[in-house]
Amino acid sequence: MSLPIKISVAKGDGIGPEIMEVVLRIFDAAKVPLEYEFIDMGKNLFEQGFSSGMTPEAKASVERNGILFKGPMETPKGKGMKSINVTARKVWSTFANRRHFKSLHGVDTVFSKAGIPIDITIVRENIEDTYGGVEHMVTRDVAVGRRFISRAGSEQVIRYAFEMAKKEGIKKVTCGHKANIMKMTDGLFLEVFYEIAEEYPEIKSNEIIVDDLAMKLVSKPNEFQVVVLTNLQGDIISDLCAGLVGGLGFAPSANIGDSISIFEAVHGTAPDIAGKNIANPTSLLMSGLMMLRYFGMMQYAATIENALLYTLEQGIHTGDFGDKNIPSKNTTDFANIIINNFGQQPKKGKAKDIANIPTMFKAPLQPDKQKMMASVALEKETIVGVDLFIESELLASEIAEILKPKLRQGFKLVNISNRGTQVWPTGSKFTECVNHYALRFEARKDAEIEAADMFAFATVLSSKIKITSIELLKILGDKKSYSLAQGQ
Ligand code: NAD
After folding, report:
1. Pocket flag, ligand 1, residue 320 (CB < 6 Å)
2. DSSP letter string over 412-442?
3. pLDDT given for residue 380 in this prediction
4. Residue 70 CA, closest ligand 1 atom number
5. Which of 158, 219, 354, 419 is the most exposed place for a label (fewest CB within 10 A)?
6. pLDDT higher than 80, residue 439
7. Does domain 381-480 have CATH number 3.30.70.1570?
8. Domain boundaries, the chain
9. pLDDT in tens, 225-242
């Protein structure tokens, strides 16, 4: 790819334009070979009636250039619009969200004061999980959300974590999960983690349950190097890590995909300080440095990073951090000081001195259709039953009684559960129920069942019960495709 590299730039909302303006000025002062194509995305676009929060020209620019450098953006609340930030990550398949948290001299934290350095990278799955936002009110007072974890999606993000560790000489990758409770979803993520780990024998791999991870991150943070997690858990854990290194002002992030990647700060639009020229541009600047390194522009990144680190070491700070006895700088002055400090070397902890490498980045080839990611071949899939989810204010034993006369077609009512806890045929009288049950029916062992038989069966029962949804029970290969109810 020839230089300069053309990137799409969206300044964002709130403090976005202020911090983007100074970051680009720092890049220009360092003569970084980038060309900017400014695009319209964010709050104003929603208000102008663009339901995706961007103009068609903005979409075309990102899909042509393959790189979006963005400021934080606001999605209007309560108008049913989906977050522009999440939409951008999802529609452009940026499957890995990489967030780097490193102690910075000049940014005091509990850990820096105790002499414990922190250098943790969180790689968060960026597309799936509950962020699909597929939610339904299944009764008037029960809401249900679907959680998607796929083998292909897990493979992409976990492979990225190991590849990144290999390239950067990192010795250990940890998988954070909750597979002890969510055996199908987190269980699949963990299974894929160990499959991929085998391809990287030189890197140590281990696992940790996410609640234990949260505790260990605040008690022994330097035990971790790279942690890969599913989307929601990764989101929460990465904010926790931001707290370890001084807050959101020091948390950069890259959303990496095979064709398109997005670089942005972790923080939001900070409406409380917008327009005052007092925001801290460090997080966006550090996200920009991740972008320069992604392009192989190591020397440019090192020059800017060393100037930033030197500036922080001198006690220079914006109003959100630093020594309160030293007057804070506004956004513009903070950036100007960084520019003036080009060529200075920080005393403690310099940027890695690596020569520029030829960029591997390529603007995306324009696909003519969406891509179906490969799935594992399956020897056999057998339908063995069905879960019928129903709305009812009856007790489970009353529901079972009502259904008895209808159950002559080779299906057996195996159990009834409420909020995932079995309440029939056995259970505890202390289990409190809501008006949404799962009825599990299994077919006779020798029956050859098709999906249509299950739908016909549900139709017969629907005269007696109010069905809200149906899920088939299958054996995939030799594994059950469904979880058991608590107490079953
Ligand atoms: P926020 O990150 O905007 O602000 C939280 C607190 O941190 C505020 O007190 C703010 O002043 C401070 N802060 C944040 N960034 C700062 C900076 N660079 N310098 C100094 N102080 C800073 O979070 P929020 O208030 O929950 O969200 C505000 C808006 O931002 C919402 O509309 C939200 O949806 C959006 N948001 C966008 C993104 C994104 O674009 N990726 C991420 C998070 C939130």
Report:
1. yes
2. EEEEEEETTEEEESS--TT----SEEEEEEE
3. 86
4. 40
5. 219
6. yes
7. yes
8. 1-94+267-297+311-365, 108-245, 381-480
9. 999 999 999 999 999 999
